[in-house]
Amino acid sequence: MFNLNDTMRYFLCPGRTDMRKGISSLCGVVHEKMNSEVRNGDVFIFIGSSRRLMKLLHAEDGGMVMYVKRLEAGRFKLPEYDPESDSYPMEWRDLVMMVEGIQESPGQRLRRLRAERKEYHV
Length: 122
Fold this sequence. Notes:
InterPro entries: Transposase_IS66_Orf2 (IPR008878). By secondary structure, the protein is α+β, with helices and mostly antiparallel strands. It is about 30% helix and about 20% strand. It contains three helices and five strands. It has a five-stranded mixed β-sheet. It is globular and about 35 Å long.
């Protein structure tokens, strides 16, 4: 069951991730690269080098869950890097906006949607 919500903490892994990795390998990335523990209930976000594939890793009661989203068109927009905290600050709304493809400029999103509709009507 989709069990993510606005009470959880979200962490974007810095840099690009090899998206061939599965749950066990991504747990290692969280431990080695992000100095954190997956089992603490936080959600860890990984983006591939093309920025078209996203994986979310989360521990739930009874096991680990990995969500995957692949864009057919466009790329995920990453949040601004914060050098003071050495991280990408993320909240629930930031994740939702990234997954839904919502940009700061509504016109930019509309152009992308129109382009996608044209592709399907050809």
